[in-house]
Structure formats: structure tokens, C-alpha cells
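Ticket 4471: requesting a sanity check on a complex prediction with adenosine monophosphate. Repro inputs:
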Amino acid sequence: MCTYLTELEAPSLFKKLVSLDEAKQIIAASFPSKPVGKENIPLEHAYNRILAEDAVAPLDVPPFNRSTMDGYAVKAEDTFGADENRATALKLCGHVRVGEPPKVTIEKGTTAEIVTGAPLPEGADAVVMFEDTVQKEDTVLIHTSVSRGENLMKAGSDIHKGETALRKGQTLGAYEIGVLAALGVTDVKVYKRPKVTILSTGAEVVEPGEPLPAGKIYDINAHAVSAAVIECGGEPVNLGIVEDESQKMETTLKQALSMADMVITSGGVSVGPTDIIPKVLNTLGKPGVIVYGIAIKPGKPTTVAVINGKPVFSLPGHPTSALMIFQLLVRPVIARMARRPAEKPRTVKAVTATRMFVARGRRTFVTVHLEKNEAGKFVASPVPLGLSGAITTLSKADGFIEIHESRQFIDAGEEVIVHRLKPNLY
Ligand code: AMP
Ligand code: MG
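Returned C-alpha cells:
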């Protein structure tokens, strides 16, 4: 007969419940989180990728001295002394268009009409805006004095030929992609994204889109974890749902390992009779399971293995726990493999609204809402983890508080640090 164990009996089943810090050390010692390679990709696919080599400018940007105004190209000294009441008359000797080399040369006492973005003609060293001129047939009256270099952008003033315009390791956002386009780049060398196969377990779990018979639930974890993998620079491959049956689990895990740099499973790591993952993992290769149970709440059954150099993170089934463990343990590993720049901790100070208790001997993570009080201080109130299976806990929470296992509780009104879960909060 199958019996489930109580919360109190369960810890003894985990061979060695390690602290969160020990778990991180064991993972770091067993798996070096090296980049998985480099690849050339078209610029239009480069958004949010990490540059794998310095981008050295093969040309000046802009490539020529360029007018930044519609007006007249002049020798600056010809305008000296001119103002609203005293004009300098220059002879109009031509027009300069955009996209063409100038056909005129500016001699002393002459000018040429020029538009924004057009190359400055030979002999000119400044541009006078239309607003400061009056044109009468082939004479232009200049009503302002300009200094050398005014209203133009010098060749190479944005980026010099030979200059390192972007550095290896930079994240390619809209501005960086703009820089590469200015250099005429069509292909860019970036770090490969670590491929992460994701699988869900359990006879009760059904793929969204399928009918939902009595007793079944839709697969939340694979989809939420896929999105989380993308967020930290990985490339998820969702392998779907596996039954809690050793042979099938072994076959699927082998396939998952063969096609990826990392495997993430959810469910099947507790102490119930269908929780077979740790045992199966130990048959797949060396060193096998390296962490089996962490003194943490939520997420105690978390299991980590390394199989022939590839990590397998087996998250608990509860979506809230699975995502929390992903944030704490998996995200930093994927980010390092993807060579993403170290993330600045996104934290805010807050005072607690109520007393918050620590699960005995376990590092406790309390998900919280943030609100500002009348004094403008953040107040953190817990989003109940009692709804442990609820995905809404994390989607409603603004962040979490980490309480050390050495404490019994955090009192109401204590100042705490809240780790933000959402990037653009406040
Ligand atoms: P387990 O760790 O497999 O015992 O699962 C713990 C709880 O999480 C159970 O209520 C499961 O039904 C639920 N669960 C497991 N996997 C998933 C999943 N992929 N999506 C949503 N809930 C899940
Ligand atoms: Mg299960």
C-alpha cells in the first residue's frame, strides 16, 4: 500500500538536506557554467543577445562632414559681424543635395544652399540656418554670425574609424543595434544561448489546449519556466509531460540530455510513491544527484544532478515553488552560461506590515506586496504562500523577503530588503 509521509517525517528521507548556501556552492563546484559557444547571426535577430567580440569601426560615422540644418553652407569668417540688423551678402553658387557628393566649392564671399544630412561642400566650414537668411535671386543675406563647425557634424565625430564602438559582453539593445547598423554590419557574432529542455511530470498534468478531464490540471510549470529561461538568456525546448514511470522517465531524460545544455524538470521530487526522478537521475551518469533536498521554504524537495557534465534541475511541482527555485538557483547558472552581464540586485527597502515566521531551520522566502504608506515608505505585506499550488502568488507578488534560518520571525515594522520580482516596478 502506498502511503504519503507527513511534513515532519519527510526530511529524513532526503539523504542530506543542505542549506541554500551549501546548495549553491555544490552546484558551482560541480558545474562551471561555461559559455556554450559563439555564433554569427543576422543583425535583425540580434536584439537582446550578448556580443561575443568587440565591434571595431571599419569606417567613420558619419562618413563625411554633414550638415545638421537646412540652410546655407558658408565660410564662417564671411559671417563674422553679421546680426539681425546688419547682413552680409553672399553670392549663391549652387545647391547641395542629400545622398550626392557636392558639385560646388565655397570660395570666399560665396555660399550654397544645403539640406540636413547633405555633405558639406569643399571650402565651407559652417552652415547658417534658413531662418537667419533672406534670399534675393542669387544673393543670400546672412543675418547672423556662425563659428567654425556650427550646424554640422564632422566626419568620425560620432565613431572614429578603428575605434571600438561596442565591447564584447555588451547586451545588444536598440541603441547597440543602431551602432552596428551605422557601421554597415549585417552579421554579428554573439554568444550562443544555452539550450534548456524542459519537462513536466505527473499523470494529472495536461497540455493546455487539450480537454481537461476530471482530476486533471493544465501544465503551468513548463510554460512559466520556458518564459523564465528566455528572460535570463536561455533557449527553451519544451518536451511536454512525462508519466511518473521509471522507464519512460529514463528514456525522456536521456533524450532531454542529449539535445540540450541543461534540463529542467518539475514535479516528482517529493517523497510520494510517484516521485521517482532522483532515483532515475542516479542511473543516467556520473556524478548523478548532487543536491537532494534544500533547507528552504518553499522548495525543499529541489533536486540537482550533473549527468556527464550537464546539469539537471528538478524543481518541485508547485508552480510557486518551482518558479521561486528557478529564480534562486537556476537563473544565475543560465545567465552565466549565456554570458549575460551580472544582474544588479533589484531590491527596495521596506517595513513589514505583519510578523513573518520562519520555517524551522529553513531559509524562508516570503512573497510580498508593496505599498507606500503616508510617509512615502514601502510597506511589505505577505502574499499567502498557503496557496502554495497557486501560480497567482508570484504573479500578484511584487517581490520576496529572504529570512535567514537562524531567525524565528521578522517582527511587524522591521526594516527589510525586498527582492523585486518584476523589472519595472517603481
Ligand atoms: P509533485 O511535486 O509532483 O508532487 O507536485 C506537487 C503539486 O504541484 C501537485 O499538486 C501537482 O499537481 C502540482 N504540479 C506538478 N506539476 C505541475 C505542473 N507542471 N503544472 C502545474 N502544477 C503542477
Ligand atoms: Mg507529481
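Notes from triage: The two ends are 53 Å apart (CA to CA). Leaving this open until the requester confirms.
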